[in-house]
Amino acid sequence: MPRRIKALLDLLEDETGRYAAASDAIAQQTKMLALNATIEAARSGEAGRGFAIVAQEVKSLATSASNAASDFRQTIIDRLSRSTDIVDELVDELEGARLADLAHAFNDLALRGISERSIDLRILATEPSIRSFLQDLADVEKKAAARERLRMQFAFSDFYRNAFLVSTDGTIQLSIEENPTFMAFNLKGQPQFERAIHTASADQWSADEIWLNPQGNDRPCVFFVCGVREHGLEGGDVIGALYLEYDWGRYANSLVAVQGMLHQNNRKGDRFLLLDKDDNIVGSSAGDSFGTHYPLQKSGEKRGSYTLGQKSISFARGEIENGFGGLELCSVIEREMRSPEELLAVLGLGDESDRPDGAARDKAA
């Protein structure tokens, strides 16, 4: 609505200027006619004296009309211009705030979805078969039982790509996808592994980075990690770590698709983006390449909006609250602003604004 008001004010400013100019032109023509009449009266001598007085009065009235038109133009157009500036600020504040709210809701949806997935991780970490294997790594039957339990999780969700168990020395002891190169990698010293090993309770978990996994055909993924404790929920020493590899690409695509359908304030052509903590694109409704840096202004702020050319850009940041300072996301909404012509068309004034003075009224009559 504020943009429609602005378009209407712009139209009023334009039409006021045209009508004032037309009035000034009429006054100038009237002055010329009065001047010609004065000359003709002088040529007529005594007989034209009365006509000369009338011509002088007409000239005086024309001058007054011209001055009034000039004063009207300067005063009214100046005030209309100031009103347009005020509405510009109002547009930025209202529309920016509304889209920032939408970006915040989008970001909250993304982070909540990740947090809810962590329930699978924590339940698995307390499973007796998982705990039993990590306490007796040499037992083949226990390893098979642990593997089967992890496979069961995959049967109920196609968003998981891999799952693996790591002993406290960083050695990968079991993986659903037994890639030799991957199995040979030791996780000791890796930040996410160290956090998992040093957790204080079975409820603590981590998901801290979205990246392209070279062992998974460079597909975008996020790893859920938590410590496995000796007595499960009852606690005890940490005996290893459980990792779940989550298909971030599919999740991000589903998010932007749902976002485009759910909100009634969405407009065709809106661009939804998900950025990581370094403002690199990790999800896009426009098919942007993963990892492309997005030049977000006000990048140090948690939430905000600004205009860039004909685009309104709003954003909101957030992170998973899991006690580790985990995954951070920033949701961005880009919206192309309607042109003044489009807004006037919405108001039913588009055609009339392009007509010459009086043409619209004459046509209507």
TrEMBL record:
Give the UniProt keywords, A-Z.
Answer: Transducer
Where does it sit, as one GO cellular component term? Answer: membrane
The UniProt entry, under SUPFAM superfamilies, shows: Methyl-accepting chemotaxis protein (MCP) signaling domain (SSF58104)
Q: What GO annotations for molecular function exist for this entry?
A: transmembrane signaling receptor activity
Q: Which Gene3D superfamilies match?
A: Methyl-accepting chemotaxis protein
Q: Which GO terms describe its biological process?
A: chemotaxis; signal transduction
Q: Which InterPro entries match?
A: Chemotax_Me-accpt_rcpt, MCPsignal_dom
Q: Which domain of life is it from?
A: Bacteria
Where would one find coiled-coil regions in this protein?
A: none
Q: Where is the Methyl-accepting transducer domain?
A: 14-76
Family, per entry: Belongs to the methyl-accepting chemotaxis (MCP) protein family.
UniProt protein name:
Methyl-accepting chemotaxis protein (MCP) signaling protein
Q: Which organism is it from?
A: Parasphingopyxis lamellibrachiae
